[in-house]
Amino acid sequence: MSALSDQLLIVTVLAYLAAMIGYAAEFSFGTRGVVARAATRARERELVTVGGPADAPVSPAPPAAPVQETPRGRAALVGRLAVALTAVGYLAHLATIVTRGLAANRVPWGNMYEFVLVVCFAGATAWLVLLSRRPAVRPLGLFVTLAEIVMLLIAGMRLHTEAGPLMPALNSYWLKIHVSAAAIASGVLLVGFVAAVLTLLRLGHDKGKRSFPFTLGQRLPDAQTLERLTFRVHAFAFPIWTFAIICGAIWAREAWTQYWSWDPKETWSFISWVIYAGYLHARATPSVKKTVATWIAILGWATMMINLFAINLVVTGMHSYAGVK
Amino acid sequence: MVEVEAPAADRVDSGSPLPRGNGFGPWFVALLRRAWRQLTSMRTALVLLFLLAVAAIPGSLLPQRSIKIEDVNAYLRKNPDLGRTLDRFYLFDVFSSPWFSAIYLLLFVSLVGCLVPRLRTHVTALLRQPPDAPARLNRMPAYAEGQAREEDLPKLAALLRKRRFRVAVRGTTVSAEKGYLKETGNLLFHFSLLALLVSVAVSHWYGWHGSRNIVAGPDGRFCNTLQQYDDYGLGARVGAGDLPPFCMQLDRFETTYTANGQPTMFRAYVRYSDGRGAADKTTEIEVNHPLRVGGAGVYLLGRGYAPIIRYTDRFGKSQTSIQPFIPNDDRMTSSGVATFPDANVDPATRKQDPNDQIGFQGLYLPTMSSHDLTMAQSLHPDERNPRLLLVAYRGNLGMDAGLAQSVFTLDQSRINSGKLQKFDTTKALKPGEAWPLPDGSKVEFLGTRAFATMTVRHDPGEMYALGAAVCLLVGLLMSLWGKRRRIWLRVDGDRVEAGGLPRTDYSGFQAEFDEIVQAARKEGTFR
Ligand code: HEM
């Protein structure tokens, strides 16, 4: 069962990879970009001219409607295919986690490897829910799947551990509550991070920056949509993160005697919490620029990553349950 | 674009110019007022919030006295100069340092300064009727017009009331507002932060804790007094006499393992009396399942083996040491000592030569390798092939020097200076085995007893903290998901106008507004 789970992880990553290629194809040939829109507008002007008054100059070139229609339709098709592939990867992802749980005979989030799998799963869930509510955000898929793949590869290659039973300290129902809440919050914040990065690219592009990463901005939804999306996602995740910390504190009181003892993991959760609270404040403060606020969100994600990787692998504390040798 | 009012706290200018030439008094007051205004501005709060995050970082990277004092001491030994400098800046006590406290106290002062006016405004808003309609409703972000009669006004007002708007009718105008819970939640959230701080302070002042290794058996019985703890901490408002009287003894310790030696369960079978003279009760304590007694929690935080070592000195007098050995790895390779400062009392003179004390430095392997006899590491945490490795020392143990000493090693400086001398080679003993020493004395390894590391903690602030945390979360949800909005209706002759204003960023407002107008049209009050 454990081996099956490992193979399913490979399937998951491959499916996400295929989906990413699909999103990328749509991204580069899609119609949402400025270039594509300009092309469409030019065509419409031609059509108007053709149907215009008789004395108007005859349009020099016949409207290339079929030629223009095809890449547009094909791109959308590829985009939908990418979503389907994401769904396939998502099911494989779910199966990876479930078989892992069956192999270990417990909830499948007892060590760092499993935690990252679940974080990514929460991220994928957040992405699919978002997509079903606002299909217009599909161009973000390229970056969401990229982030998923990077995290899953790190998990599979660097953090993998054999499925096994829990150490006594983890044997508590708070494991189910605290860790799943932290994973869900982290997964949603992963999507929030992607949205924040894209917001900055779009804002940069709008300001006239044309160097490499900003060129991506041109094919993205408009800055205001992205910026609001970033906020919504963070506003959704922040209470879950708060809940996760509170549950962690209740558990700490049962397991380690004290609800808060500034263990490194606690300290960094606090830091992330403070920074995300800072983001929400900054965004609610009209005098703080949107770029600045968005950068704070990115900083928040950086502290989440420090907490996940550096604190688990480098610093030892009471939270040393990573199980990575 | 939707106009969203700036929160009051954000409308901060640098203050009116400081008055000049009026003498020091007014100038000083103006300065203070300006400083207060700055401190309670949202921007300052943000900066303080970030400072707090940054200030917490060293606390996670350097060892902290409050968490593990041994690590701090080890660090100071290894880097004495750097260590001393870091210590001067409280970098080993970050979370109780003056600069950390200064940041969060300023933050909370800023919070209070910001909350009190907001609370006042909010209470006023709650008591007040929704404000009258602006002169030109068609300037509002949401707008609709139609035909209506004045008699329809009550029906329109009822429609809004049914949608839980707070409604005021003034002449021919209906004003409605909804979403007060957002600000209520916001204030609840921020006041919960203050409550949390107070709870932490209560924990700090009135809480206490202590820990100790309890060896199994009646002779290991422990009572809740400071003298019996290996280490402890008392809150500023707690005296030694405030500890509730209870005693406790470890009957048995049970551990289960997987095949590869990973423990899956620890369970301490204990008996305890709650100090009211009643008979002992028995119970089990597990990790994650503390015992609550006398308002305190008794937690199982560790376990190990205490070898039973009997020493019979050259005059034939026997003494037994049952001291916990601390585990060095997860396979329970454990080290500790057995000391006999009262050994070798000459029966003729009834005197003991202080340089004739005996001490053993020991290493206990619950499962020694049966192939590699030089390997000083246990293969399994359970006792499958137990061996006790002992080195015997004679000399002055220095135990009455009054210095705090580790109970797990002999004083290395005494060994180096020759005050303690090895007097035989290392020996590995099986349980029941004896080892005759050159001076005619002997040491026997009789077996082991389990010990449990128990921490007792009383924290009177924790329930307040929990309450504050729950309020904080509820307030947060209300504040993030609440939406404040206003709707006005004005009938003028046979014309009716409706205007709507979302007071917070709320993308669904137009849809809600349209739905309300639609409903009114259906009722026939808005044609
Ligand atoms: C421990 C420090 C603090 C934390 C963790 C915190 C957290 C939060 C959070 C999560 C929100 C919700 C954000 C939103 O509704 O968009 C909020 C809102 C707010 N906070 Fe704080 N806060 C803190 C301190 C302060 C201080 C010191 C002030 C005032 C000086 C302040 C003023 C405000 C204001 C005005 C809002 C409302 C913003 C809005 O219109 O939504 N906060 N705070």
From TrEMBL, chain A:
GO CC term (a single one): plasma membrane
Segments forming domain Cytochrome c assembly protein: 109-319
GO molecular function, one term: heme binding
Gene Ontology biological process terms from the UniProt entry: cytochrome complex assembly
Keyword NADP: no
Main localization category: membrane
Record-linked InterPro entries: Cyt_c_assembly, Cyt_c_biogenesis_CcsA, Cyt_c_biogenesis_CcsA/CcmC
Compartments where located: Membrane
Superkingdom classification of source: Bacteria
Topology within the bilayer: Multi-pass membrane protein
Keyword Endoplasmic reticulum: no
Transmembrane segments: 6-25, 81-103, 115-132, 139-157, 177-201, 229-252, 292-315
Keywords: Cytochrome c-type biogenesis, Membrane, Transmembrane, Transmembrane helix
Protein name, entry field: C-type cytochrome biogenesis protein CcsB
The organism of origin for this protein: Planosporangium flavigriseum
UniProtKB/TrEMBL annotation, chain B:
Transmembrane parts of this sequence: 44-62, 99-119, 187-208, 463-481
Signal sequence region: none
InterPro entries: Cyt_c_bgen_Ccs1/CcsB/ResB (IPR023494), ResB-like_domain (IPR007816)
Keywords for this protein: Cytochrome c-type biogenesis, Membrane, Transmembrane, Transmembrane helix
Pfam families: ResB (PF05140)
Domain called ResB-like: residue spans: 42-514
Compartments in which it is found: Membrane
The protein, known as: Cytochrome c biogenesis protein
Organism (species): Planosporangium flavigriseum
Organism placement in taxonomy: Bacteria, Bacillati, Actinomycetota, Actinomycetes, Micromonosporales
